[in-house]
Each structure stands twice: as structure tokens, then as C-alpha cells.
Amino acid sequence: MLKLKYIFIFLLSFGFKIVNSQNDKIFIKGKITETGSNKTIEGVAIQVSNTSFGTFSNKKGEFTLDLPKKAIYKLLLSHVSYQSFIKEVKAGKLDTLSVTISLLQRSNLLDSISVYAVHKPETLVGKTNYSIFDFDFYEDKLILLTAQNSLSKAQIQLSTYEGKIISSYELPKEAGEAKHFFHDYEGYTDIICKDSVFRLDVLNTELMVMPIQQKDFTKFIEPIEDTANSHFYYHDNWEKYPLFNYYYLKTNDSLNHLLTTITNSDLMKLYNLEYYYLPPQLQLEARRIAQRYKTDKRIVAALLSGFTQSMFYEPLYAPIFILKDTICIFNHHNDHLYHYNKQNKFIDSISISYHHPKNWREWKKQLFVDELSNKVYAFFSKNGHHYLKQIHHQTGKEVATYKLKHHSAEKIKIKDGYVYYVYRPFDSTQERFLYRERIE
User: Fold this and answer.
1) How would you classify the pairing of strands 336-340 and 178-183?
2) Which of 13, 65, 200, 440 is an S-S bond match for 28, by CB 3.0 to 4.6 Å?
3) Helices 297-304 & 280-293, crossing angle to 10 degrees?
4) What is the distance between the alpha carbons of residues 105 and 275, in angstroms, rounded to a whole number?
5) How many domains does the chain have?
6) Are residues 197 and 125 in the same domain?
7) Cβ(274)–Cβ(298) below 8 Å
8) Do 227 and 214 meet the contact criterion of CB atoms below 8 Å apart?
9) Could you tell me the mean pLDDT of each successive run of 10 residues in the chain, 440 residues long?
10) Which of 98, 84, 124, 44 is nearest to 371 (CA)?
11) What is the pLDDT, as a whole number, of residue 230?
12) What distance in Å separates the CA atoms of residue 107 and residue 81, rounded to the nearest whole number?
């Protein structure tokens, strides 16, 4: 909860440089061609992710977009005869950008049916001398976190989807043990280490690794979930407390606004009772600590008693996604899906129940979104197998279920109709490989 003031200060100091800029617009000129032939493609739909901006390519394959300025844009391209594609465009300090995009032709319908019906996982990157521990997407390439034995000696690698390594960077020892990737609200991939945080970028196919202060990352980057319609959306969630808020902040305003509050009321009652279960000596200590740090004695008591580490405590999980200009908050703790419009006005509240299977252990408290199709998937595990259930973002109902072929898949991510994951067969000497499956 104390993070809020730091977030607010950061956004005022750093997040709104574009407001003071003389030009808060950017003009994107593009041309779309066919991979291999350079033939221009007419009628390609270009949609700017998480906005209402979009257009189509003309007879020369050209298009233009006049957009509010921000760091990164995701252009979603689709055409009936070509494979869908997401192009990341980084603005930098420029006001006009030119991009050229190549699209692959779709395979004929017969080939597609024969391939997808088999549902055979495709190995993207698999090496015999190191394992893949995490991954993220960069335009038409992959960023990999790899190591031979321990993540204390990790490497960042840039790879093609065919497994060709283009660039590598070995993390320095002083960074501490590598943990995982974090995809931030600006579209960058950040690598979280024990003692450091680095932002990753690519320049002329070479990896660029830039250090970020850990305290700055924790206060100013990690809490921001997304940006859309000239708003920042962020939270003050702390995993040790069963209540947090979602806020939004306008780029042309210095005031933060409350969107909604998330809490688990039953858990909160147990949490607050911990103070009264403490012996008098510890109650006194809780009051002293609370006074010193200007916080609630009941929060201190729950930490002193070990309640937040017990089987009775469950961190809150209520993610926010922006889907087709609708802000969706999946509040699993009061069994409702909230909808807000792009002006952040409440639309409705839909009852949800997909997260209450007969066996509660099956629900793995994870939602994934395919940005290209705006489809939402919930993650379940049953009898040793993993399942993705598509959840309709308007009705909250289950639409379809897909069973992953590899039962112990890890680091699951979804993009362009595929599920990507890291996997090593049980009782195998194989290293961790990166796979993907077509979701049908």
C-alpha cells in the first residue's frame, strides 16, 4: 500500500514527458509486402493494440497512422490470405516513422487441417548443452534465458523461431542469480535477478542490456499493468495484504483516480484477527512496530504470527486486461468480471464460476491473453495434464478447452493462436526445450 505515493511521484516526474513535448503525436508510414516476392499486399487490416486506431493497406500496400505519442506501439496485421503478424514499433524521439512489414502466405486449407488435427508440439529451440528457463517475444524473434547448470551463470540469447541463435549476452556475476523475465507496460522485456534488474532491447540484431535500479523497478515499473487511451493503469498490490486498488492516471492530468478495490473479505477477517491471537508481549511489539512505520498494528501482527506464510493465506489474483477498448477486471475473489469503457466508466458486472472446479486444486490462478485475437485463457491442471479453457471476455463463460500434449509444461505464454512453453520429459536427461502448439 505504501507503493502508491512512489508510483504517483514517478509518473509525475518521468511518465509524462510527452505532455510537455511540443508534439504529442506520431505519424507512422508503412508498406506491406509478401515475404520472398516483395509483392505489395492490398487490404491488410492494421489495428493498433489496445486502442481504437486502425486502417487498411491500399493498392500499393501502403498505410498511414496518426497516433498519440508513446514509447512502443503494437500493430496487429491480419489478412485472409496471409498469416497474422504483430509488429512492434518503437518511437524513440522521432515524430515520423517508416516501417516495412513482410507477411507470409497462409498454407492451403488442406495442409492446415492435416497439420492441426495431429496437434503435434513443435520444437522451436532445443540445445544439448544448455536449458531454457524462460523466454519472451521480440517482433519476429525470441529472447531466451538459458543456463547450463545454474541460473547463477545465465545467458540471454536472441533466437529465430527456427532455433538459430543470433546474439548472446552473459549476465555479470554481480547481478546475482537470474530469476525470470518480466514483460513491462512499455513492451520491453526485463530480466529480474537476485540483486539487479536489466532492460533488454535489440539494436541491429545485437542484444542491448541496460541496468535499472531495483527500487525504481519495484516502485515505478512493476505496478503499472498497461497503458491505453492516454491512461496509465496501475495497482498498489502487496502479496502480504488481502486488499489492493486499481488506479488510472491520465497523461494530461496530475491526479490519480481510483478504478476499483479488490479484496477477499473472508480472508481479511482472519487476517485482522491475528492481532488478538497474539500473546500480550507480541501485541505490544506489534503496536511499537506499527507506530514506528506508521502502519496498521493488524498488518504487523499477521506478519509476526506467520499467517501470511500459512496454508490459510492466499495472495489476491484479480488481473486487469484491456480487450477491444474494454477494460476487464477478473475478480476471482467475489466471482465477478467487471467491465469499464475507455473513459473508465463502469459498464457492468458479470458473474463468473470457471475458477470453481469440483476439485479446487485444478485451478492454477493464471489467465493468459492472446493479443492478436483478444482471447482469454484460464489455466487448469488435472490428473497430471494441463488444460487451457477459453473464457469469453464479455460473458465470462467457458467457450472451449484445449489439452496440452506435454503434461509438465512450464512458463506458458500465448501468442497468435499458439501456446508456447518450456518442457523437459519426466525422468529424461534432455535439457529444457522451447515448444509451441497450435490451439484448436
Assistant:
1) unpaired
2) 65
3) 120
4) 64
5) 3
6) yes
7) yes
8) no
9) 42 38 75 89 85 84 88 83 84 84 69 43 94 95 94 95 95 94 94 95 90 93 91 95 96 87 97 96 96 96 95 96 94 97 95 96 96 94 94 96 93 96 90 94
10) 84
11) 84
12) 9
Residue type, 245: N
Q: What are phi and psi of 360, to 5 degrees?
A: -60, -20
Q: Are residues 59 and 84 in the same domain?
A: yes
Phi-psi region of 36 (alpha: psi -120 to 50; beta: other; left: phi over 0): left
Q: How far, in whole angstroms, is CA 306 from its chain's centroid? A: 30
Phi-psi region of 228 (alpha: psi -120 to 50; beta: other; left: phi over 0): beta
85 belongs to a structural domain: yes
pTM: predicted TM-score of the whole model, two decimal places? 0.79
The whole domain housing 128 covers 112-222
Composition of the chain by helix, strand, coil, percent to 5: 20, 45, 35
Contact between residue 412 and residue 418 where contact means Cβ atoms under 8 Å apart: no
Distance CA 89, CA 75 (A): 8
- Residues 141, 101, single domain; the answer is no
Q: Classify residue 131 as exposed, middle or buried by CB count within 10 Å of its CB (0-12, 13-18, 19+).
A: buried
- Regarding whether 90 and 73 lie in a shared domain, the answer is yes
Residue 260 CB contacts under 8 Å (≥ 6 apart), including other chains = 245, 246, 329, 331, 338
C-alpha to C-alpha distance for 106 and 50, rounded to whole angstroms: 26
Q: Quick one: 31 and 91 in the same domain?
A: yes
Among 309, 337, 359, the domain boundary falls at 309
**Is residue 93 a part of any domain in this protein?**
yes
